């Protein structure tokens, strides 16, 4: 059954929102435009008013997802009521709780599309690379604060540590999706906070 057609002013936003949901569930290649259009009650002609192609749609979905994520991440990592290291701990713990609620499904759209599309589409790869490097730099800045305050060992280089942190984190997300349990998250948390960052 087709959804009721949205008002024109909301059409683009609804298409992107539904596209994000479907691509989290099925990936880019397995999400057909008909799936998106039927879910939103939008005719094909209206879709092409907002997007030049499915590729353009995918890129705009990436941008929209990243914009929302950046706002949330900036609010968390910039929360000066917490120490730099406490912000990172909260990031991990809040996302583990989200994974628990989702029963370790879906994962991160940027990570999912990176695995699926980096070898298939150069435009996607370049945009995804920009996003992951931006995330690395955001965490590196907080780790630099933590090192200055003596919260983490002084021999940890912030950018390298952020690179490792995010690589291990995305790996934990992937493994948790495969295993359908929180074990990989728990191992990540223990190794990073107890043995690398050495949270007391």
List keywords for this structure.
0% strand; Arc Repressor Mutant, subunit A; 9 helices; Tetracycline Repressor, domain 2; 2 domains; mainly alpha; single chain; 200 residues
Layout of helices and strands, plus pairs?
Blueprint: H1 8-26, H2 33-40, H3 44-50, H4 54-77, H5 84-101, H6 109-117, H7 122-148, H8 158-179, H9 183-196
Helix pairs in contact: 1-2, 1-4, 4-7, 5-7, 6-7, 7-8, 8-9
Structure summarized in a few sentences:
The protein has 200 residues and is mostly helical. It has helices at 8-26, 33-40, 44-50, 54-77, 84-101, 109-117, 122-148, 158-179, 183-196.
If you had to describe this structure to a student in words, what would you say it looks like?
The protein has 200 residues and is mainly α. The protein folds into 2 domains: 1-51, Arc Repressor Mutant, subunit A; 54-196, Orthogonal Bundle (Tetracycline Repressor, domain 2), CATH 1.10.357. It is built from 9 helices and no strands. The protein has helices at residues 8-26, 33-40, 44-50, 54-77, 84-101, 109-117, 122-148, 158-179, 183-196. Helix 4 packs parallel to helix 7 (122-148). The longest helix is centred in the last third of the chain and has 27 residues, at 122-148. It is elongated. The termini are far apart. The model is unreliable at 1-6 (pLDDT under 50).
């Amino acid at each position: 059954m087709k959804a009721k057609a949205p008002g024109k002013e909301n059409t683009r936003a609804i298409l992107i929102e539904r596209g994000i949901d479907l691509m989290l569930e099925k990936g880019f290649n397995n999400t057909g435009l008909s799936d998106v259009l039927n879910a939103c009650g939008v005719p094909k002609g209206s879709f092409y008013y907002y997007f030049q192609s499915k590729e353009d749609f995918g890129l705009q979905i990436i941008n929209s997802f990243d914009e929302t994520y950046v706002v949330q991440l900036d609010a968390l990592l910039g929360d000066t009521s917490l120490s730099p290291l406490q912000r990172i701990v909260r990031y991990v713990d809040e996302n583990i709780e989200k994974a628990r609620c989702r029963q370790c499904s879906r994962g991160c759209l940027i990570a999912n599309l990176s695995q699926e599309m980096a070898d298939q589409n150069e435009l996607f790869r370049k945009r995804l690379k920009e996003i992951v490097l931006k995330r690395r730099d955001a965490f590196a800045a907080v780790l630099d604060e933590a090192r200055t305050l003596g919260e983490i060992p002084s021999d940890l280089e912030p950018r390298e540590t952020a690179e490792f942190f995010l690589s291990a984190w995305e790996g934990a997300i992937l493994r948790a999706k495969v295993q359908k349990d929180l074990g990989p998250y728990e191992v990540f948390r223990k190794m990073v906070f107890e043995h690398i960052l050495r949270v007391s």
